[in-house]
Amino acid sequence: MSDTTSVKQQSTGAYHAQAVLSFGLALGAVALGIFFLDADAWVRAFLAIGVLYLVTSCFTLAKVIRDRQEEGRIVSRVDQARLEKILAEHDPFQKL
Predict the structure, then answer these.
(1) For residues 76-94, b (16+ Cβ closer than 10 Å) or e, as one string?
(2) Which residue from 17, 45, 16 is spatially nearest to 31, judged by alpha carbons?
(3) What is the Cα–Cα distance from 32 to 26, expressed in whole angstroms?
(4) Would you state the pLDDT for residue 87?
(5) Distance (Å, rounded) from C-alpha 62 to C-alpha 43?
(6) Is the dihedral of CA 67, 73, 76, 81 positive or negative?
(7) What's the mean pLDDT when you consider all of the chain?
(8) Between 49 and 83, whose confidence is greater?
(9) What is the SS3 string spanning 37-72?
(10) CA neighbours within 13 Å on the CB side: how many for 6?
(11) Residue 71: C-alpha distances to residues 59, 64, 65, 81 (Å)
């Protein structure tokens, strides 16, 4: 059984490293901006907690989207396997 409708895409190591580095730089820049902000400590703490909540929410959303895509792929594969089994067992020249 070959799945010709989808191509398995894999990211390269360089792409992965770039994504991790970009995330780290962005998070570090925001953290430094909050740390050096000319505001009271409670304002900086509120912003830091807001950024932390935003980051964790983004990770959760990305995981949920990925899980739904994988679930759809699995259902599609099961349906494809059932169809292939029915077609393989069907004999068009069988007398009724």
Answers:
(1) eeeeeeeeeeeeeeeeeee
(2) 45
(3) 10
(4) 79
(5) 29
(6) negative
(7) 84
(8) 49
(9) CCCCHHHHHHHHHHHHHHHHHHHHHHHHHHHHHHHH
(10) 12
(11) 18, 10, 10, 15
